[in-house]
Design brief:
This protein has 335 residues and is of the alpha/beta class. It contains 11 helices and 16 strands.
Length: 335
């Protein structure tokens, strides 16, 4: 297994406060046959100097300054300068468990091409961790333990961006980092999915995910809700949408309305249902809102559910089961 060189690609921007802890966790890996290609994306703090210090200390650490702008360009530059047969990504404010690369590499070797090695993740923060992060961590890890991550791909990003590993050949098969689309981790996850890569189940926490108020995914407009609903809709339309069926959108909240606008813009007809008595019978964007039980009166349906309430989602799943409808074929949860 030690013969497999692992290329770790890592964009860096203004993470000097956490960077040494991150780099130390890489240097201390039990699996030592790796290279780290770090690309500084115009940091205003001491990040670049810290990277250079570590590159002098360990020849496996290579440092570049981004010739473009943003995470995608930084990742592309890192990947272009990598040489390993195995590819993984790291975030410069996070921490690897000591056996992360060993477990990922071992699982990838055992399962071969066409697979994605994954690990469980653990959020941590100096402040109180929000309930949303706790729920996301629990949901994501539940999927990873079973290796059925793609069953929830239209709800959230099901491959944690800094905790996967694939063969370079498979990475290229999935167009690597060439697409210029944000959120870049979610887009890559969809490309893993449509190219038939299989998640490898894992029961070990391999990555500690740091949360803080200025984290890029919290502050950058490329990670706003509207970009997530847009990427979900585009992949659904290109990969799942059955033109022979009647499309039904569930829910008229913020996400439901955003999805409706996308469908209307693309001239895709749909029925729109909800359980809010104040909205039923009214018209939004020229579409009449129907009661949810109207689904039984619509033949040959394919549904997108934008209802976020978890209790309501369970009731909706039960309803679909009563109609003998199948998840990821007849209905898709978008949140």
């Amino acid at each position: 297994m030690e013969n497999h060189l692992v290329s770790i690609i890592m964009p860096v921007k203004n993470t000097a406060l956490f960077l040494e802890q991150c780099l130390d966790s890489i240097l201390n890996q039990s699996y030592q046959h790796w290279e780290l290609i770090a690309v500084d994306d115009g940091s205003k703090d001491d990040s670049l100097n810290i990277l250079k210090t570590y590159s002098k200390k360990d020849k496996r650490v290579t440092v570049f300054s981004n010739t473009g702008k943003g995470i995608i360009e930084a990742l592309r530059l890192a990947y272009a300068n990598s040489s390993g047969g195995f590819i993984t990504r790291m975030d410069s404010d996070d921490i690897m468990t000591v056996d992360k690369l060993e477990v990922l590499t071992s699982n990838l070797v055992k399962n071969g091409l066409g697979n994605i090695a994954l690990g469980l993740v653990k959020y941590f923060s100096e402040n109180e961790l929000g309930e949303g992060f706790k729920k996301y961590e629990s949901w994501l890890n539940t999927l990873t333990v079973k290796g059925n991550n793609f069953s929830g791909i239209y709800k959230e990003c099901v491959i944690p961006s800094p905790c996967w590993m694939v063969y370079r050949e498979d990475f290229e098969k999935c167009s690597a980092l060439r697409p210029n689309r944000y959120p870049e981790d979610y887009d890559l996850t969809f490309r893993f999915y449509i190219n038939g890569l299989k998640p490898i189940a894992c029961t070990k926490v391999l990555h500690h995910w740091r949360d803080y108020t200025t984290r890029t995914s919290r502050t950058d407009e490329n990670y706003a809700d509207n970009t997530f609903i847009s990427i979900k809709a585009d992949y659904f339309i290109s990969q799942e949408y059955d033109k022979e069926k009647n499309l039904v959108v569930w829910g008229a909240g913020r996400k439901g309305k955003a999805l409706a606008q996308i469908l209307i813009h693309q001239a895709i007809d749909f029925y729109w249902i909800c359980d809010n008595p104040k909205k039923i019978g009214k018209h939004i964007y020229g579409k009449e809102m129907l009661a949810f039980n109207e689904l039984e009166n619509i033949d040959n349906t394919q549904s997108i559910v934008t209802v976020a309430n978890t209790k309501a989602q369970e009731g909706i799943k039960t309803y679909f089961n009563q109609l003998n409808q199948q998840a990821m074929k007849d209905y898709f949860f978008f949140c």
